[in-house]
What we know:
Methane Monooxygenase Hydroxylase, Chain G, domain 1, 2 domains, about 95% helix
Amino acid sequence: MTSETATKTDEAGRKAKRAAASAFQTAEEVDRKAEIAAMAGDEAIGAATRVSGMIAGRVDEAGRDAKKAAEEAGIKAELAANRAIEAAEAAVRASGEEAAAKAEEAKKAAEEAGIRAELAANQAREAAEAAMRAAGEEAAAKAEEAKKAAEEAGFRAEIAAKQAREAAEAAMSAVKEDVATRVEEARKVAEEAGTKAEAATQQAREAGTGVAAVTEADVIRAERIAKLAQKAVEEAIKAATDAGNLADKSAIAAKEAQAATIKSPTADMAEKAGETGNKDKRAAAAAFQTASELDRKAETAAIAGDEAIEAATKVSGNVAERVESAGKRAKEAAATGFETADRTREKAESADVAGDEAIETATQTLHRLISKAEELAKAAKEASEEARKAAETAGKMSQTASERAEEAARGAKSLAADAVKKAESMAAKMEKSHQETVAEVGVLAGKADEALSLAKSAMEMIRSLTQKLLADWEMIIIIIAFVAAVLMLSFGMAAFLMPS
Length: 500
């Protein structure tokens, strides 16, 4: 072996080693992209479990096909990597320019296979996303395309492996013993790549066998969602019932306030009716809101119930019975919720009308009271004006009367002075007359005493004559008549002489 040959051999060995390392990296990349394709298949399967009916089955089947195609692509990529590594080992052993070139071609072919596998993974992922968004025929078609793309990637990976094998066979003719150590290193790297590829394949297979477990987990999740939806509907039913009852009570209070205002249209009653009407309308608004919320939750419960019943068909045994029962209870709660929402809405409408009527009555009453107050104010103003005019007239009349009273007072004072003078004159005259009368009475009293004395003397004389002439009746009569005459005369004089 010459030095030139050794140099070329060493250079070819280094190129072959670089090509082997590049092929190893390419194999790892292919393996990773195959795993991505498998994960995309899993996502398509998961999307299928979240839809219902015939479409779900088709998307599920398409996802499994895509997963299977991805697994096959991974296996084929693994084989291609192994063969590329073998070709690299052969290239290392051959240490020739032609072997290195063919190994480089194998690397490019493997890279192309990796790109195809990545495209297949992306298409599978897009199919899964489309299944989540549309859950329809288009999603199934995309999953089918992902399957075909994965198959095509596997086919191209197989071609790349074939090319790598051909490159390895061509490189076998240039085996050199001085690169045995490098061959051993490449072999170890290839073994590690094979181990990783085998692990990835096993993982994909385990993912395929775990579809049933995922389905059961989704079914249990559907059961839990149905139960939560049922509970939410029951709570909303209670809230709507309470709101409806409150709306009824508020409507009754509004009607009573309206009737009281009509019976006694005062400002206080109108204000009370207005406040009651506003309170009633707030209760009606709350009832409307709870009814709408109940409708929404009832609709959610109905959907959750349907999904739970549909999910129960994918499993069997106690789990299926339990999930189906949960779905039915959720649907029953939803039906009750819809009925309660309708009743609550009717109560809310009645309360809203009662509130409007109470507010209308209060407003009309206040308008009437304001109009009446304006009329009273106008009448009071007119009366005040009349009173002012009357006061002015009365003032004038009072002044005139005062002047006349002053004149009358002056005249009365003059008359009183004259009357006093006349009274004093009359009093003086009466005093004088009294004194004269007293004197006359004294004289007359003396005369009366004298007359009495005479009467007594006459009585004595009559008594003596009576005794003498007792037997003579005629004389007695004469004497009696005489005595009577004397007495009458005495009394008459006494009466005449006594002062009046």
